[in-house]
Automatic annotation (TrEMBL):
Transmembrane segments: none annotated. Residues 1-22 form the signal peptide. This is deoxyribonuclease II. The keyword Flavoprotein does not apply. GO terms for cellular component: cytoplasm; extracellular region. Its EC number is 3.1.22.1. The keyword Oxidoreductase does not apply. The gene is DNASE2B. Belongs to the DNase II family. One of its GO terms (molecular function) is deoxyribonuclease II activity.
Length: 370
């Protein structure tokens, strides 16, 4: 059964949105309101058109207002969407109750802890009770702080662009996320999985305890998730034993779409735009904001991709760069066909490299005998 058929069937059963209640754990937007989802895109410190920045400004959209708007806060403020969302987790830590579970992971953890090359190239955190919770996927090294330290934003996260997506889920969805994170093998550096959660969150409990993880039946896993208000998402997860690039070898072919990929484009650490398979992947090299400023991928640490064709409407946000080194790392992506999210991200692409780059590269290799 294809992803497109799954999408159509899901709409029949889950088309009705469920209400979000302020008393429940959820993603919290800039206005302090519970939302089904939000996306936060922090700007790099250096941008075009003489736009002076601190490296803390960001634009934001959510399920209540699905269009990019500049935030009135800096990302290091507790009033920011990340700050208000994390505050729920930090309050849980202080209360020492066993009615909530949380996990924080990052391959580059805070407090000068060693970088992990053996775990997934994954960054995120989740908090839930036995009714509802949220999952945040982001690209910020050394973030978030340990709960005992309170909210803050790392100095190292100012220079480059960064992205974070928060999704609110009902409790039963976290059993599926638990299985997916086994493929991610994230570097968990702070967590609490009380006894009432351990049967459903067995893998997270194992990670939290620092115990040996069970083996997985394959090197890839694709599942459908449903947000609290009925937003349909697909989660791609791969292990480090899958050495194929996740964009070109899997996501583009599975979703049957040509992708424009925005990821950190360091010199010597990027792949060429690839047209060798039925569905292509193109490197974005210039990102533009709705306010006539722009920045190159070299200064953007975010990882996302968007369909080049409007009729396909896919947007994915996740963990891995389009890079030869990253093909050997575990991690994943959350993908949606939400039209508002697609339009917002597609409008950010100012320029990308087409297939001629790939053709010139392969031609040069053949001429040289490689």
């Amino acid at each position: 059964m294809t992803v497109r058929i799954l999408w159509s069937i899901s709409l029949l059963f889950f088309g009705t949105a469920l209400p979000l209640w302020a008393s429940q754990i959820s993603c919290i937007n800039d206005d302090g309101k519970p939302v089904d989802w939000y996306v936060l895109y922090k700007f790099p410190k250096h941008m075009s058109h003489n736009v002076a920045g601190t490296g803390l400004e960001y634009m934001f959209m959510d399920s209540l207002a699905p269009i990019w708007k500049p935030s009135k806060y800096f990302v290091n403020m507790t009033e920011s969407a990340l700050g208000q969302t994390l505050q729920q987790l930090y309050q849980t830590y202080k209360s020492e109750e066993n009615s909530t579970a949380y996990v924080i992971y990052n391959d580059g953890p805070p407090n000068k802890m060693n970088y992990s090359w053996t775990h997934g190239h994954s960054k995120g955190f989740l908090l839930l009770d036995q009714y509802q919770g949220f999952w945040v996927i982001h690209s910020i090294p050394e973030f978030p702080p340990f709960p005992e330290d309170g909210y803050g934003y790392p100095r190292t996260g100012k220079y480059n662009g960064q992205i974070a997506i928060c999704i609110t889920f009902r409790y039963e969805q976290f059993a599926e996320i638990d299985k997916q994170l086994l493929f991610y093998n994230p570097n968990v550096y702070n967590c609490s999985i009380p006894k009432p959660f351990q049967a459903e969150l067995l893998n997270l409990q194992t990670m939290c305890a620092g115990a040996h993880l069970p083996s997985v039946p394959s090197n890839q896993s694709l599942i459908k998730l449903l947000s609290a208000q009925g937003e349909i998402l697909f989660n791609f997860a791969k292990t480090r034993y899958d050495h194929e690039d996740i964009y070109i070898a899997w996501m583009a072919q599975k979703l049957q779409t040509n992708f424009l990929v925005e990821s950190w484009q360091r010199k010597g650490h990027r792949l060429f735009s690839n047209c060798s398979l039925p569905y292509h992947v193109y490197n974005v090299n210039l990102v533009g904001t709705p306010w006539n400023s722009s920045f190159p991928s070299y200064y953007d640490h975010s990882k996302w991709c968007v369909s080049s064709r409007p009729e396909d409407r896919w947007t994915c946000v996740g963990d891995l760069n389009y890079s030869p080194q990253q093909a050997k790392r575990s991690g994943g992506f959350v993908c949606t066909q939400n039209q508002h999210i697609y339009m917002a991200f597609r409008a950010l692409v100012l320029h990308y490299y087409d297939c001629r780059e790939f053709q010139e590269f392969t031609g040069a290799a053949q001429t040289s005998g490689l």
